[in-house]
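Morning F.,

Quick status update on the modeling queue. The single chain you submitted on Monday has been processed. Sequence for confirmation:
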Amino acid sequence: MKAAWTNDLLRYKGPTYEIPFPYEEGIKNWPPTQTTTLPYGVPGEVDADGTVRAVSIVPSPYTKPHPQLFQAFGASPRTLEWCGEEDVTPTILAGPIENVKHLMSMYQQGAASKGRSVAFGQGTGLCRTIYFTSDDADLYSAVERYEAPVWNGWYRPFGFMEALRLPGEEGPVLKPGEHLAERLVNSKQLIAGNVDEVKRQLEELLNEAPMDYLVWLFHWGLIPRDEALRTLELFATKVMPEFGLVAA
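C-alpha cells below.
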C-alpha cells in the first residue's frame, strides 16, 4: 500500500504478491490501452502491445506521502509492536485496562525500535462499546438484542472473546451461566449507565490509557434507526463537550 501510494508506478515481486500478475509476462490484452491508458496513464504502465507492466494509483493521495494507515482489532503484543514499527495506528480490542496498557507499551517499543519516540497512548486507538441505560435490566436487554448476535456470531468464531479475558483468568470465556452483559461490563469493554456515569467511566479510562482515537463498536445494522440516532445525539451533545470536543 505504501509503495503504491508513494510511487508513480508500482512493480513488485514478493513471496506472496506480484504486481502485475504474472510479474514477468504482465497482463496481456488490456482493453483500453489505446483509448485511455497510453494517452492518459503513467508512461510504462502499459506497453504498446497492450500488456500491463505496472500499476498506478488514480487519483494519487491528497495526504502526502500517503494517508495514515489503521490496523483493525489489534489484540496481540506482536501486532502492536509491528504497528509501532510501521507507524500504523492500531485500534486495540482489549477490555481489561491492564491488557490495554501492556499493548500500548508494546506499540511504544515497536516505535522506539525504528527511532520514533511516542508518548504513552500516542498513535493508538481503543475499541469500546457505549450504552445509555437506566438500570441493569435495560442494559441486559440492549446487550441481548444488539451485542450478543455480533459477539456470538462473529467475534467468537474469530477468537475475539479473548479480548474479554480477565488478567490471570483461565478456562472458557464466557463462563458457564455467565451473561454476556456481565462480562462486557466487568472487563471494561462496555461503558454503560446514565450520562454522568458514562462521562465518569470515560474520564477514568482516559486517565489510565490516553489515546488518540476512541473507536465506538456501534452495531448500527442491529439498532433501530431512531434509537441509534438518539444515542449518537446524546453522546455528541452531552458527553463530547465535557472532553473539549464538538461534533462536526
